[in-house]
Amino acid sequence: xxxxxxxxxxxxxxxxxxxxxxxxxxxxxxxxxxxxxxxxxxxxxxxxxxxxxxxxxxxxxxxxxxxxxxxxxxxxxxxxxxxxxxxxxxxxxxxxxxxxxxxxxxxxxxxxxxxxxxxxxxxxxxxxxxxxxxxxxxxxxxxxxxxxxxxxxxxxxxxxxxxxxxxxxxxxxxxxxxxxxxxxxxxxxxxxxxxxxxxxxxxxxxxxxxxxxxxxxxxxxxxxxxxxxxxxxxxxxxxxxxxxxxxxxxxxxxxxxxxxxxxxxxxxxxxxxxxxxxxxxxxxxxxxxxxxxxxxxxxxxxxxxxxxxxxxxxxxxxxxxxxxxxxxxxxxxxxxxxxxxxxxxxxxxxxxxxxxxxxxxxxxxxxxxxxxxxxxxxxxxxxxxxxxxxxxxxxxxxxxxxxxxxxxxxxxxxxxxxxxxxxxxxxxxxxxxxxxxxxxxxxxxxxxxxxxxxxxxxxxxxxxxxxxxxxxxxxxxxxxxxxxxxxxxxxxxxxxxxx
Length: 499
Description:
Mean pLDDT: 83
Strand content: 15-25%
CATH class of the largest domain: Mainly Alpha
Largest sheet: 5 strands, antiparallel
Helix content: 40-55%
Distance between the termini: 50 Å
Number of strands: 13
Number of domains: 3
Low-confidence stretches: 464-499
Radius of gyration: 28 Å
CATH topology of the largest domain: Trigger factor, domain 2
Number of helices: 13
């Protein structure tokens, strides 16, 4: 007769548990007997009909394989029961505890093993009603409308092949080989790697292979097709790929092709959008900017809510952000930016900057995720099918895709749950903002406060890590010029060689 497993839970680090599980001998015997009985029912050996092979021959022929498979299933079952019994919510797949091995499964003997895993931490939600937040207010001017027309003129412009010398905003495609210090084989070896010469207002940095490269403009300006550029950089400590984290990287980038966009004229754009006149085109652009402004305004208020909630409660989070957690965080940020109307090229730039964040910044975002998830449960926040479909349609427009194709892509990759989480988090933050004490501030004052906070963070990060923190985009102020040609397709994140 099987007995109850013994489970001892101990702390193994911040938000990390060690489970020492002992499965009684009687349970082991029952489990092994069931495993061999299942094989005996269908096994066929020469001279015997299926299901008639003697048990001794079954064990002699298949014993090792059956026992190993039974051991794996027993570990999985015991682990599931242990997490349910102790109300643990795993963040990661369990690993064998350091310094331990998985023992053999033997009849008549108890089976003891130790696992470690990261779990959702236990904490008390902070008070969230009546938070003091600011609402940035901006009146759209001709300057904003003309800036948006300029961005659109690049998106609808005419590309032409060039060989160089390269200027700002030129799109370049080439072969990239990335090597990590001390590793013989390339960790990335890929054709068709896209980068864009950074715009002047973006500073010297620009994204390549999902990494923010400082001084990218100086490396590319004046170069031509056929040239090879050598880039030395460091892999961010919180990157979603563990073979890149903290590594000294060398990128050999051989330029294969390039193009330059001739912007479309206002008359051409009016014809393209069917407005007939440039004045009507400007009215349409103004309406679009008003919608985007309202979205950025709501996002700014959400960000304040999230920051206040995150600061209001303290609890341990995992010391080491897993690759899966980093990827999920980036996915949620990407979907939110696309939904807010940010162009794909700018989204790629923002994601590259996010990858360069410190481990502490990544841990803070994980802490925020836990708080919003718990608060959403408490408030009963859910995501409807219509909300999900609307968000997919919004992102599809930004990616220039059909919604059904994007949905299929999200479902196949499993990323649709991150999209659901992104919507749920935004709804939760909006619920809190609706109960907040709100003070309106003009855009100039708001942008100044953002710039001051960004400068403070940049100095703190530079003193700690010796690196520059990417500047923040003011939530309520449309940028004056395109940061990269809107037609630029976001470059893929680094993929392993051959993948």
